[in-house]
Amino acid sequence: MTQAHILQEEIDSRRGGYRALLAEFWASFSENRGAVYGLFFFICIVLIAIFANFIAPHEPTEQFREAFLQPPFWQAGGDLRFPLGTDAVGRDLLSRLIFGARFSLFIGCIVVSVSLIIGVFLGLCAGYFRGKIDIVIMRVMDIVLAFPSLLLALVLVSVLGPSLINAMIAIAIVQQPHYVRLTRAAVMGEMTKDYVTAARVVGVRMLRLMFITVLPNCMGPLIVQAALSFSSAVLDAAALGFLGMGAQPPTPEWGTMLAEAREFILRAWWVVTFPGLAILLTVLAINLMGDGLRDALDPKLKRS
Amino acid sequence: MAAFFLRKLFVLLPTFFGVTLLAFVFIHMLPGDPILLMAGEHGMSPERHATLMKEFGYDRPYYIQYGLYLKGLFHGNLGQSIITRKPVLQEFLTLFPATIELSVCAIFIAVFFGLPAGMIAATKRGSVFDHAVMTGALAGYSMPIFWWGLLLIIFFSGILGWTPVSGRISLMFFVEPTTGFMLIDSLLSDQAGAFRSAISHLILPALVLGTIPLAVIARQTRSAMLEVLGEDYVRTARAKGLGPIRVIGVHALRNAMIPVITTIGLQVGTLFAGAILTETIFSWPGIGKWMVDSIFRRDYPSVQGGLLLIATVVMLVNLVVDLLYGLINPQIRYMD
Question: Bridge-partner residues for B80, per DSSP?
Fold first, then answer.
């Protein structure tokens, strides 16, 4: 092969930049079989959430007076009209679970975006400016991290008043220190590199340097953290709902459903079992995906 | 080592003051004023309200109030519960042993099962056992433990009838709270069956609380072990002709333990968060249930005090873990 030919090939492989990156990402992501299963399951949940209106056999809050605590269809007394049975006020469990997927995903999305945006901004400032700004930001984050996350979220909600929105705000506040720390560490690592110095010499302005030159190179660990915090947001929101401090009844949020079902735990196993199973499977799928993302994007953290 | 200790403490102090500030701000963020909250539904005359405002110092500027609050803290005065009228610190200290007992048993379960599981998974990497442990660990890590607790109650208490559903010991026994730890107190009380009853009350909550730490420890042990098994000194030990038990149990394990011990130490925060849920499900009379109850009873001095005390405990335990880590691994002492 001649020199020119090799050069040509190199240029060719660069042409499909993003597509090539994506292909490379998928190659290492799909190496992890669990991650692919997780992704598949997660896509299913997203589809269920989007098309809940069409999939669910009944309305989530519709009460059937003739069917209180009816067992799932395969048990004696069950009915295919209510495949997973009904709850204590005669609402179809399956429909409530399907609509509940919307809430969990919604919570995850909002919490991750809010804490990601605020956390990345603060972390970027801390890592870029260092000095006093860094110290102040990091000490405040240390304070937030000194509290067990669920406890702080619980107390915040009790101040703000129990509702789904306030639960999301509280969880976002509790989670963003992790983004701040990660971003700061990544930015500090990048700042010493040559390309940053080069950009400075060329005269790139501060904001552009921060957000366009440096930040994209710190995205790997942040995406991994986003996946992990998505799952813990779903878990924490369900826990708050379970404690009566999250979504309020009759919202078909999974944690809230569990709280309502608690008193029937020894009489009707299905009202307790299915909402929790939904939480577990969703969180598990996201965590599986997160593991795959970590392996693919963050080789330093790779656990063999 | 002393310099290392001082440096760590120096970092901790501002955090501690920040925590006190947050606990202070918390009670002032609440809608309505604290005196009316204390009065409850009965309300009170404006004159009495003014007197009480003065008495508690609520009419003074915030920074003076904060100063007074700090002064009180250093005298061990964390305020008084609105409901029971007892000092918050005293309430905390009476309930704290129950949470410690539960947490210690949970961590014991987590280490007892997690450590060997992670070790064996690492040495038999890629085997069915390895996959099973990793899948189980990920499921445990993703577990909504409030649901897990309910499931265990359905199965062990409802279907099998093996364990009681709530509390720390059967009502048939009266146990003098000498140490506050039911397992020890019930042994000391010399009543037949008391210890058994205490164990049967403890086992399910401890299992539930230990689930997430168990998963984390198993994962961490496995990855630490895998890393160590690839090191040269392990190869040397093998080449010397040492048996696999000695290589893994002595040479590898000792070094793999460093990150694992840190992980165990850092589970304290998780344990408190878990205790909130676990104690609520099992009506376990500890700090977690007390916090939830206080929040629902709007007993804000208790919430404020509890918040501060729990954060302090978490910070202190993390400090101890840091120091131990520095003790085990001298490299850490000189880095920062």
Answer: B87
Provide the chain B residues 216-245 that lie in CB contact (below 8 A) with chain A: 219, 223, 226-227
Q: Do the chains contact at B311 and A146, CB–CB below 8 Å?
A: yes
Domain range B91-287, CATH architecture: Orthogonal Bundle (1.10)
Residue A8 Cα, gap to closest chain B Cα (Å): 41
Convert the pLDDT of each residue in A140-152 to its tens digit.
Answer: 998 888 888 899 9
Q: Which comes out higher in pLDDT, residue B24 or B180?
A: B24
Ordered by where they begin, the domains of chain A are: 42-59+73-301 (1.10.3720.10)
CA–CA dist B289, B198 (Å, integer): 19
Q: Report, as an integer, the average pLDDT of B154-158.
A: 86
Of A142, A273, A287, the CB nearest to B15: A142
Choice between B52 and B6, residue whose per-residue pLDDT is larger: B6
* DSSP tag of B148: H
B90-113 pLDDT, tens digit per residue, is 999 999 999 999 999 999 999 999
Return the domain boundaries, chain B.
Answer: 91-287
The tokens 């309300």 sit on which residue?
Answer: B43
Q: Which of residues 200-219 of B touch A (CB under 8 A)?
A: 219
Q: What is the pTM of this model?
A: 0.86
Rounded distance, CA B319 to CA B18, Å? 17
Report the complex ipTM. 0.85
pLDDT value of position B333: 62
Match 């204590």 to its residue by tokens: A88
Which of A140, A238, A266 shows the shortest C-beta gap to B154?
Answer: A266
Q: Which residue from A121, A151, A40, A263 is spatially nearest to B291, judged by alpha carbons?
A: A151
A248 touches chain B (CB under 8 A): no
Name the residue facing B307 among A155, A255, A273 (closest C-beta): A155
